[in-house]
Sequence to fold (746 residues):
Amino acid sequence: MTSSPLTAAAPATSTSPVGGRRRRRLRRFTRRDVGVLAVLLGIPVALDLALIWATTIASIGLSFTSYNGVTAIKWVGWRNYDQIFTIYEPFWRAVRNNLLWLVTLGLIATPLGLFLAYLLDKNIRLTRVYQSVFYMPVVLSLAVVGFIAQLVYSRDHGALNVLLGRADHPTDWLGDPNINIWAVLAAAIWRHTGYVMVLYLAGLKAVDPALKEAAVIDGANERQVFFQVIFPTLRPINIIVLVITVIEALRAFDIVYAINSGRNGLELLSVLVTQNIVGEASRIGFGSAIAVILLTTSTGFVIAYLTQIVREDRS
Amino acid sequence: MAYTVSRRALLKGTLLGAGALAVPAALAAACGSSDKSGGGGTVNKSVTFGSNYSDDVPKKAFADTLAAFDQSKGFTTKINTVDHNSFQENITRYLQGNPDDAFNWFAGFRMRFFAAQGLATPIDDVWDSIGANYSDAFKIASTGDDGKKYFVPFYNYPWALFYRKSLWQAKGYQVPKTIDELRTLGATMKADGLSPIGFADKDGWPAMGTFDQLNMRMNGYDFHIQLMAYKHSWTDPKVKAVFDLWKGLMPLHQAGANGRTWQEAAQDLGAKKSGMYLLGSFVSQQFKGADLDDLDFFAFPEVDSTIGTGAVEAPIDGFMVSKKAKNPDGAKEVLKYLATAQAQNTYLKTDPGDVAANTQADASGYNALQKKAAAFIGGAKQISQFLDRDANPTFASTVMIPALQKFINDSSDIDGLLKSIDSQAKSIYTT
Fold:
């Protein structure tokens, strides 16, 4: 075995000969290690700063301009935000849809995933088959899920209307803005449930069976065993799942974009940004303002969550 | 004893491996970019073309046309085909990034918008040799705001109400000349179990065609073009009248339009589920063989007898040379060829929905539909380009698309809708 630099460096605690003082500087890393660390950490940090933080700050700056990508940048102050909140027609629908996405994933998909994980943890027959079946949608990209959704939900040629026997008065699952968001959320739940289920399965495996047995001996029924013994031990997984759910909700884009470019009831903030910047529109200042609103919302959640965690850890 | 790899050896190996892969890639990139066009006098014979002809029929037709060009002039053109809607949506980034030498585009405000932003090369030298081929209307449509020419027209196509002759003969329907006749005919068709007027607006832009026709019939061509340039407010009572008329006609349109693409609606027309369909003549791309012969069209009926039906909506498709073209001279040669009657005839042989822009194009090769379309456009008093080509593209895509889809879902609050359109239009046009 090559000698580790730690063991090699340990005896070399330097004792300075100057003035008889004993300076104990325990050097844990050699210069070469520092160099390697600097490179391996430095490159990702530099990329992160350049591609994410610098561009974010640039976007925030551009949101106060009327830049259209080609002509000179003109400062307009809060005008973009004013227009977004008052006259930009799709904006409030997009906010509503993003919130719906968050609530649905958080209150329906996640508990459902937990429930399925709990059931499948019981080592019933064919448990692995069920796990694979539920996890399969996660493997599909959301764009593919959007495409499948079109085949299933299409008004005139879709499978669902045929299966429901509604060939004469077909329901316009994707074209009717009152119901298409729910049709799309059904597909998103289908995917998110499998994802959460696998995370909780891993967490449930780490639960000490002795705890469960002790609770049963003490006379707890199954519901009490779950909520008062098992669920508290899943706290680290809960944190991960919560973060993932919020990220997925705010990040939602591919599935609605694949269905109808995010219009007519399927607006989302991320899609509005794209429509204004990437489309023929090239209203970069305006699109950046929408992006900053999305950024503020996400940051708001992160800050709220972190404050909660820090407060809990302190108490 | 098993051979174990220490962590340091693994890290070292990974870094060296990554470096080893990066070096040839960097070299290849460096070598590739040094492939500049050759010496001064001769034109570089390799031209790249950005094309949005992504549907099967036009894609093949265009490939045939450029293949003929390659053969005759010894060029190699490389066509980069992008999905039709994506091409238009990404055009600003495309033209500022790494565009092809020449690209498909459309006449109207859209062309002038990008020319004014300095994203296209002026091609007055190309027009010196091809000017004789085009009528004045096309010359005007190809000129930018600064008076220079930026566009070479290739073909255009009229928007009209298409129908299947066999179905109408069987049921005894007559072509309506006025809006009242259209309403009566629609009622009869509904009683016969058809959707009178096919309708699809999933992509957002087809419904603009209906608006254009109604506006030009009710208020005249001049008012329509001025409205497109935002010289009139959208809350003008004349505009409200158009939406009121459309609301009255909505029961005759196929239900569930926001969930249907124009290709699906065209197939419904072919399957005799709808009686007629307002679309451009590219609808014929969805018809093959005997069905294509069965297809016919008529002009949108008149609403106001003092205005009549002289205005025709016939968007012009053509080509431009990008400002950042690597081979602008080669691109101009391609455009000179594409302006000839021969090129346009080659294209139209395979794509039978359109009509050549060149006045000398050989009309004898046209099928019956094309002959009628050519006569229809030739006899037009005024020609409009389509809402998303006549109006500011930002306005068309971010305001009109959602507004029209909202109108199709719920046509009750027209005042609120027009107020919303107008305030957004003001914010876009007066920047």
